[in-house]
Amino acid sequence: MLIHKPADIPYSEVTPKHVYLNRRRFLTAAPGLGAAAAALMGPFSARAEKLAATHNNNYNVGTEKLTPLEYITQYNNYYEFGTGKDEPYLLAKKLKTSPWTVKIDGEVAKPKTLDLDAVMKLAPLEERVYRHRCVEAWSIVVPWIGFSLSTLLKQVEPTAKAKFVAFETLYDPKVMLSSREAHIDFPYVEGLRLDEAMNPLALLSFGLYGETLPNQNGAPMRLVVPWKYGFKSIKSVVRIRFVEKQPPTTWNLSAANEYGFYSNVNPKKDHPRWPQNKERRLGEGESVLGSITRRNTLMFNGYESQVASMYTGMDLMKNY
Ligand SMILES: Nc1nc2c(c(=O)[nH]1)N[C@H]1C(S)=C(S)[C@@H](COP(=O)(O)O)O[C@H]1N2
Ligand SMILES: [Mo]
After folding, report:
1. String of DSSP letters for 233-301
2. Is residue 148 included in any domain, yes or no?
3. How many separate helices (H) and strands (E) can be counted in the chain?
4. For all residues of the chain together, what is the average pLDDT?
């Protein structure tokens, strides 16, 4: 199911030493999963359930290695649970992910409210390996599980007026920070142009590494828009609205000069406070001093052939 044979991935190569030494005792075979996936899964998914999926070979990242699970699940941005990178791992346990419904309405012929099970049954679950790059210049390679977002969006039959799609994360003040504490407005909102949302690369994800999503990664259902900076990949989605006008988005509201609506990964367009042509791949080339290697950031995060045509004629330095 996964792309590497176990022999290709010694634990010592993909995992920090303290983690793999500590992990051996958890390596019971996981039925239905490839041995490589079982080997890469750590003890940190106690509450996650196995989620079967078939690997889709159209979505790979060449020879780049999967990022070890520990990095994907312990270094996160999920401001509702804290602004530090380790806080979502520690605090997102409080998120109640069941029951879960998503309401889809706006410029559509058939508005719907679906529960999670109904959404997950819309299409066979696929495993896709994507690069995922944060605007803060770190990146990971993740074996996500899900299917194209378009599968869900088509259910409600968008009208001719629908030009954009707006997304909203759950906001539960009982378990999440206040906007004042997090310094951004809640609920977290994001948006895509209709053609972007319908692009097959835009993924609706329910899991990673053969299991349901850890809460800190946006359980039970999140977007993954891999040609854009990570903040466009909104977590824990409860509401989707088709709209005529470009919808407001959280980071753009917070600092429009730093975070645009489009936010396509672009090594030529620096962030006002740092360059964007290099990135730190979590788990790669680390020493006691931290990560010392830098990878070159690719235009559209390496997905140019699949997405560039959507932006022909647009000035991407202005529409950042
Ligand atoms: N609701 C919500 N979604 C969110 C965020 C957030 O703070 N809240 N952070 C975003 C940012 S900045 C990034 S880089 C990615 C991180 O996803 P990951 O933790 O699964 O790697 O989630 C995005 N989605
Ligand atoms: Mo990010």
Report:
1. S--SEEEEEEESSPPP-HHHHH-TTTS-SS-B--TTS-BTTB--SEEEETTSSEETTEE---EEPPGGG
2. yes
3. 11, 15
4. 89
Q: What gap in Å lies between CA 274 and CA 18, rounded to an integer?
A: 32
Closest ligand 1 atom, residue 251 Cα: 12
CATH number at residue 245: 3.90.420.10
Domain extent, residue 211, equals 11-311
Ligand 1 atom closest to Cα of residue 75: 19
- Number of folded domains that form the chain: 1
Q: For 91, which DSSP code?
A: H
String of DSSP letters for 184-225: S-SS-EEEEEHHHHHSTTSEEEEEETTEEPPGGGTTT-EEE-
| CB of 234 sitting under 6 A from ligand 1 | yes
Tell me the one-letter amino acid at 277.
Answer: N
Picking from 273, 290, 289, 272, the residue whose alpha carbon sits closest to that of residue 281 is 290
Residue 237 lies inside a defined structural domain of this protein: yes
- Tens of pLDDT, residues 144-196: 999 999 999 999 999 999 999 999 999 999 999 999 999 999 999 999 999 99
Q: Is residue 320 part of a domain?
A: no
Across 283-287, average pLDDT: 84
Here the tokens at position 24 are 């051996």
**ω before 10 within 30° of 0 (cis)?**
no
Cβ(78) – ligand 1 distance below 6 Å = yes
214 in a domain, yes or no? yes
Q: Tell me, using a 6 A CB cutoff, whether residue 235 lines ligand 1.
A: yes
Locate all alpha helices (DSSP H) within 116-183, ordered by sequence.
116-120, 149-153, 179-182
Residue the block writes with tokens 């806080």: 87
Burial label, 190 (beta-carbon count in 10 A; 0-12, 13-18, 19+): buried
Burial class from Cβ neighbours inside 10 Å (0-12, 13-18, 19+) for residue 306 reads: middle
- Report the candidate in 190, 222, 191, 194 with the shortest Cα–Cα distance to residue 206: 222
